[in-house]
Amino acid sequence: MDADVAVIGVGTMGSMAMWQLAKRGVSVLGFEKYGIGNDRSAAGGESRLFRTAYMEGKEYVPLLREARLLWRQLEEETNNRLLTLNGGLMIGHESDQAIQNVIHCVDTFNLDHEILRGKEAEERYPQHRLFPEDIMILDKNAGFLRPELAVTSAAGQAEDMGASILRYTEVKEIQPDSLGVTIHTGERTYRVGKVLLTTGPWSGAFLPKLNKQFKARRLVLTWFAAKDITQFYPEKFPVFARMRNDFRLTGAPTLDGTMVKASNTKTPELVKDPEQLNRNVKVEEIREVGEAVKELIPDLNPDPVRASVYMDAYTPDDHSVVGFLPNMSENVLVASGFSGHGFKMAPVIGKVVTELLVDGKTSHSIDHLDPERYIENVT
Ligand SMILES: Cc1cc2nc3c(=O)[nH]c(=O)nc-3n(C[C@H](O)[C@H](O)[C@H](O)COP(=O)(O)OP(=O)(O)OC[C@H]3O[C@@H](n4cnc5c(N)ncnc54)[C@H](O)[C@@H]3O)c2cc1C
């Protein structure tokens, strides 16, 4: 045996899983086709939003509460500042489904929040232009994460505790059987007890039964200069998600004192082959987000000063798939399909998969992420 557990794909989830597995004393071997902290797929672009009042569903709140504690633990262990809680604004028409979900979350879990309307909202956060019947919900347990540093911190911590990572090593094939899993890289064969698949947008290639359920989607991040950048410092300008018709403008305050991130994350384009991701930004994409910024955050200059392209794996219901695969092997666990909102929960997913691999069960409620929901739909 080369290791008890192999983690294939040491990106966001893979690095956190390795950190948690190493903490439990499991011998763990990671395979990563690029470098650690690479920006080829889902982790890159300087910041990721952390939110607790969750528009994607109240079932995530307990996971997010624990994620927050684990982010702090990783900070303490590494001395790196990863999470800044400067608050988060969810903005939109009161009847918008996402806004309704956030209200439902804060009520159900009694989350620390404020609801702002009209003049009060405009005076508190004059950077945002509101429309009649727009409301703002301030989630006090929200803010931003530093994705590249988070991944390198978790992977580094795992290595310090004895884990090994094979960098620039692509796994070509896995062959599970009842006793373990054989891994082929093209150059060598490895034998391990169990495999965790955290290959993000590439996951479909390893999972014939779920292949059609994972779609890689392309997301363009854009940054804007401000007329007065001091108005967009983190203490004055919380992270935000703005729902407006078929647009979702999400963003973060300036991190380097020069630019504000504001991007359209509503309907990311499909990517046929993750290997062929088009990293060029089209003029229409720039123009479209610029027009939204001009309308909604008028004190930013509407021409992006920076743009870059990433991708994530999406599932049909936008909930990820975390679990052992029925009919495949009890030795292969998958954690993929985080559908554009997985970064904030990465450390708790690392803990959940560790519990599943080591104890055979998890203390967290993850029924909504069960792979079984897709298996019966497979044609
Ligand atoms: C632009 C953008 C903005 C986002 N904003 C937010 C946000 O604000 N808040 C939030 O919570 N979430 C956000 N998300 C979502 C979040 O970033 C992702 O859900 C999360 O990073 C997915 O992690 P992952 O581990 O599944 O994939 P990745 O981090 O992409 O990791 C997959 C890894 O697997 C490796 N790999 C693939 N195939 C192989 C192979 N065969 N052999 C070896 N290695 C392999 C890849 O190189 C990669 O390193 C955003 C995503 C994007 C793209």
Strand runs, count: 20
Number of domains: 2
Shape: globular
**What percentage of amino acids are in beta strands?**
25-35%
The third-level CATH topology of the largest domain is D-Amino Acid Oxidase, Chain A, domain 2
Radius of gyration: 21 Å
Largest sheet: 9 strands, mixed
Mean pLDDT rating: 95
Termini separation = 36 Å
- For the record, the CATH architecture of the largest domain stands as 2-Layer Sandwich
Protein structure class: alpha+beta
* Order of SSEs: EHEEHEEHEHEEHEEEEEEEEEHEEEHH
Pick out the low-confidence regions.
Answer: none
What does this structure look like?
- This protein folds into two domains: 3-43 and 148-213 and 317-377, 3-Layer(bba) Sandwich (FAD/NAD(P)-binding domain), CATH 3.50.50.60; 48-145 and 215-314, D-Amino Acid Oxidase, subunit A, domain 2 (D-Amino Acid Oxidase, Chain A, domain 2).
- The two termini are 36 Å apart.
- Helix content is 25%, strand content 28%.
- It contains eight helices and 20 strands.
- The protein has 379 residues and is of the alpha+beta class.
- Flavin-adenine dinucleotide (FAD) is lined by residues 8-9, 11-14, 31-34, 38, 40-43, 45, 48-49, 170-171, 198-200, 202, 219, 221, 310-312, 336, 338, 340-344.
Q: Descriptors for this entry?
A:
binds flavin-adenine dinucleotide; alpha+beta; eight-stranded mixed sheet; FAD/NAD(P)-binding domain; 8 helices; D-Amino Acid Oxidase, Chain A, domain 2; single chain; about 25% helix; globular; about 375 residues
